[in-house]
Structure prediction request, 369 residues.
Amino acid sequence: MSKVLVVTSGKGGVGKTTSTAALGAALAKAGKNVVVVDFDVGLRNLDIVMGAERRVVFDMINVIQGDAKLSQALIRDKRVETLSILPASQTRDKDALTSEGVEKIIAELREKFDWVICDSPAGIERGATLAMHHADVAVIVTNPEVSSVRDSDRIIGLLDSKTERAAKGERIEKHLLLTRYDPVRAARGDMLKTEDVLEILSIPLLGIIPESPEVLRASNLGTPVVLSNPDAAPSRAYADAARRLMGEQVPMTVPGEKTGFLTKLFGRRVA
Amino acid sequence: MSFFSFLSRKPTAAIARDRLQILLAHERGTLGGNSDLVAILQEEILAVIAKHVSVEREKVQIKLDRGDSFSTLEIGIEIPPGLAEKQASLKRAALRAS
Ligand SMILES: Nc1ncnc2c1ncn2[C@@H]1O[C@H](COP(=O)(O)OP(=O)(O)OP(=O)(O)O)[C@@H](O)[C@H]1O
Ligand SMILES: [Mg+2]
Prediction:
């Protein structure tokens, strides 16, 4: 059975696109058929994070307006065979994203894929509400920081009231993904504690993704971090989160970098 | 990760710069960034092909790779088995008759 998952946050820049690419790649590596869908009309960047920017021909709005078939707009990942991306439009007006159009596309994607992962734009406007509308599962990306937690709370409210599932009186499965987590600052007591964030938002924890320079390297390369460096701390954290999404029980840890003595000495020079 | 793997890791900033240069050149239109060009080419190429065989829109795959000095456009059209030969011979017959 296929699942529609929205990666959302309210607040901008917390790691939604990074997480969409990483979770999508991790699920695809596990053999699932996955499509990652960019809902950020006008400011698309999932294609860039996925390294597909040079291969975009048609986008979601071309499909909605009937200028292209869905199969023509989907771009197959070059590294993982079961991973595809549906780009957002860079140039067209946001209003071209109609709710009927989105509904049709999501229904068609459900038939082709096991996982349809929607990368939401920031904010609580139309783009964000359309991205979450058809979701069965929501991953709420949150940084351990006051404004991010507050925006996540707002988004949780929308998920429980403005989605298709909510309208049908059904529950939408919600998971918290804590990203850009800094173990050093956490140890120093300068960062909101995971327990506190969980208690405030009261939704289950999907994973804790540490802050890591590997994420920037991955974005430079245009390769989801779980593919560019599968052993890196954020990659292992994303892989665990993906396994939890598939229903596996995985003990919760904050993966640290496996750095040897030499790496510590010289690591800075090559970073 | 091996103990010495960091030695072989190349910095990624140059790759990021190259990707951006290519992307922006296309978006700013200096490399013929007309985003509708592909749609126009597709329509016209399909029209030419449709004169000879009937193709389903679903069976047309269009791939584009925007490059530094040139881009490649790849159009894959799936033609049903036997149809191509049959239609071609019909066409030849029609030509001979005219
Ligand atoms: N775990 C991490 N460690 C270090 N940097 C990170 C991490 N996660 C995300 N980033 C960086 O944070 C920035 C924002 O990430 P991203 O684009 O994924 O956020 P977003 O929520 O999609 O943003 P927007 O709201 O603008 O769509 C990027 O520069 C990304 O590389
Ligand atoms: Mg984003």
